[in-house]
Design a protein that fits this description.
CATH topology of chain A: Rossmann fold
Number of strands of chain B: 0
Strand content of chain B: under 5%
Shape of chain B: elongated
Largest sheet of chain B: none
Radius of gyration of chain B: 18 Å
Strand order of the largest sheet of chain A: 6-7-8-3-9
Distance between the termini of chain B: 25 Å
Number of helices of chain A: 6
CATH class of chain A: Alpha Beta
Oligomer: heterodimer
CATH architecture of chain A: 3-Layer(aba) Sandwich
CATH superfamily of chain A: P-loop containing nucleotide triphosphate hydrolases
Structural class of chain A: alpha/beta
Chain lengths: 202, 222
């Protein structure tokens, strides 16, 4: 489903990687590993189409990723939370769904917030939440997420142990439904899934 | 297509309502700058009437500039701009929504307050109507052109000053036809021609500017 061929990444004068390729099918998880500065985030940004590769090609379902169809299948969670401080967690979830052209009812959003442990905080502006709670608001998007390709940049950062377990359950559920996931992480988290591939950048 | 534009507008308006200080400060900047001129020039009605269109328009340009640096910067900083760029729509539509929302909170209030400020310059009723119409029709072009500048300077240090240098020269046609509309009305020539040209500038910039700004944003996001 997701194929990358012969990718090359140059940032400034430095070549981070070249000749990188992989294939990822339904229900498969790709772990990206590597030191700080090895190009993990750059590779993710190539995969979502924000950073054009120096060379090589990325295809989704056999077609180029420069299309609205690809973006309609893509859910990206960056290391920035992409939540608005002035809005409440509930408003943030609903606004994000609207802008991504997804259907999300208020009840579903409340349910998602309850799952991430933010019940009772849904009407509080996000600027009053702690760092970890803001991360949970960002992660709550994943609860009702039906799009098949998840690209997650360091999803476990700033989470406590219980939340890490909860998130790995969510990712594993997504894989069991036939979804794909690409993620970077420095913490080794055991995600129960059919096929786990690893890619080490060095 | 309309759905994504309205979704962006409603989100940005909601954000603006939670941060009313920004809207109010630009509006007060406009009011104070315009009010300083009659005080500085003194009670000379003829001179004031002559100066009014130019002063009101220059103040409107500067007041619009005030809020431009934040048009994309806030979304860029918290990562929502990435998400908007990844939405399954052309980015130009998203920018169109942001431009319209920017006009609703920065341009529209200027047009509403302009007739009251015009009284300080002893403008006739026709003059007041003309300046209101001109600012109402012309300010969307300011938001549209400004979006290009805001996108090009996104993430740069000292971007605020750079935006002014980039965008103010591009505002000159709007200034000329906007002030010209009032002059022409007051002197009895009729301002319709100027207003039509202003409307043309607005439509052209609302049609093209968001796509240019979207191209600049994609570069800024790389």
């Amino acid at each position: 489903m997701l194929e990358a061929d012969n990718l090359e990444c140059v940032r400034g004068d430095r070549r981070l990687f070249a000749g990188l390729g992989f294939r990822l099918g339904a229900g498969e998880l790709l772990y990206l590993q590597g030191k700080n500065g090895s190009g993990k985030t750059s590779l993710l940004r190539m995969l979502i189409g924000l950073l054009p590769p120096e060379a090589g090609e990325i295809r989704w379902k056999g077609a180029t990723i420069k299309s609205d169809e690809f973006r309609a299948d893509l859910c990206y969670l960056g290391h920035l939370n992409a939540i608005k401080e002035e809005l409440t967690p509930l408003e943030n979830l609903l606004a994000a769904a609207h802008l991504a052209d997804e259907v999300l009812s208020e009840d579903e959003a409340m349910d998602a917030l309850e799952q991430v442990g933010l019940a009772g905080r849904e009407d509080l502006a996000c600027k009053y939440l702690s760092q970890g709670q803001k991360r949970r608001v960002a992660l709550a998007r994943l609860v009702k997420e039906k799009r098949p390709l998840w690209i997650l940049d360091e999803p476990f950062v700033a989470l406590d142990v219980a939340a890490v377990n909860w998130l790995s359950g969510i990712i594993s559920g997504h894989l069991q439904r036939g979804g794909l996931a690409v993620m970077t992480t420095h913490q080794l988290v055991d995600i129960p899934a059919g096929t786990v591939r690893e890619l080490r950048l060095s | 297509m309309l759905k994504i534009i309205t979704a962006v507008i409603s989100r940005d308006l909601k954000l603006a309502m939670r941060r009313q200080a920004d809207i109010v400060s630009a509006l007060f900047f406009f009011i104070i700058v315009v009010s300083l001129f009659p005080l500085g020039i003194g009670p000379e009605p003829d001179l004031l009437r002559k100066l009014a269109p130019g002063v009101l328009w220059v103040a409107a340009l500067l007041a619009t500039m005030l809020s431009l640096p934040r048009l994309f910067a806030d979304d860029h900083r918290d990562g929502t701009l990435e998400q908007l760029a990844l939405a399954p729509h052309p980015l130009g539509l998203v920018v169109t929504g942001k431009v319209i929302a920017h006009w609703l909170v920065s341009g529209l209030p200027l047009a509403l307050i302009a007739p009251i400020l015009g009284i300080q310059f002893d403008l006739s009723t026709e003059g007041l109507v003309a300046i209101t119409l001109a600012i109402l029709i012309g300010t969307p072009a300011l938001s549209g052109i400004g979006a290009i500048g805001a996108a090009l300077t996104l993430g740069l240090r000292g971007g605020g000053v750079l935006i002014s240098l980039l965008v103010l020269p591009l505002y000159i046609p709007v200034l000329i036809f906007g002030a010209g509309a009032v002059d022409a009305t007051v002197t009895g020539l009729g301002g319709e021609g100027h207003l039509s040209l202003l409307a043309a500038l607005t439509f052209a910039s609302l049609g093209f500017a968001p796509w240019a700004a979207a191209a600049a944003l994609k570069i800024a996001l790389e």
